[in-house]
């Protein structure tokens, strides 16, 4: 993986942590904050895949996407407040 892609993936992860914390404080809903974090982690995983794709990176990205789908389904099923 090139240094630029590694740095971009690290930045996406850091921004995801900050953005999810802001959403968690503003919305006071854990699932929405988790969904934002997972979106950023998917972006970081795809950036890592752009470098030197390995089976570990593919499995990690697929796992994060599957968890994101489950969180999205949970958000749809949760009753509005």
* Dominant shape: flat
Strand content: under 5%
Number of helices: 3
The structure class reads mainly alpha
- N-to-C series of helices and strands: HHH
The helix content, as a percent range, equals: over 70%
Q: How many strands appear in the DSSP assignment?
A: 0
How many structurally independent domains? 1
Overall average pLDDT: 84
Largest sheet: none
Low-pLDDT residue spans: none
Please state the CA-atom Rg, rounded to the nearest Å: 14 Å
Give the termini separation. Answer: 45 Å
Summarize this, please?
With 81 residues, the chain is an all-alpha fold. The chain has helices spanning 3-27, 30-50, 55-77. The protein has one domain (3-77).
How would you characterize this protein structure?
Keywords: Membrane, Transmembrane, Transmembrane helix. This is Membrane protein. The protein has 81 residues and is mainly α. The chain has one domain. The chain is 85% helix and 0% strand. The protein is built from 3 helices and no strands.
């Amino acid at each position: 993986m090139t240094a630029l892609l590694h740095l971009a993936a690290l930045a996406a992860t850091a921004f995801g942590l900050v953005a999810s914390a802001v959403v968690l404080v503003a919305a006071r809903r854990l699932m929405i904050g988790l969904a934002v974090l997972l979106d950023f982690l998917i972006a970081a995983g795809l950036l890592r895949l752009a470098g030197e794709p390995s089976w570990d990176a593919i499995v990690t990205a697929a796992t994060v996407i599957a968890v994101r789908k489950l969180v999205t389904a949970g958000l749809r099923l949760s009753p509005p407040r």
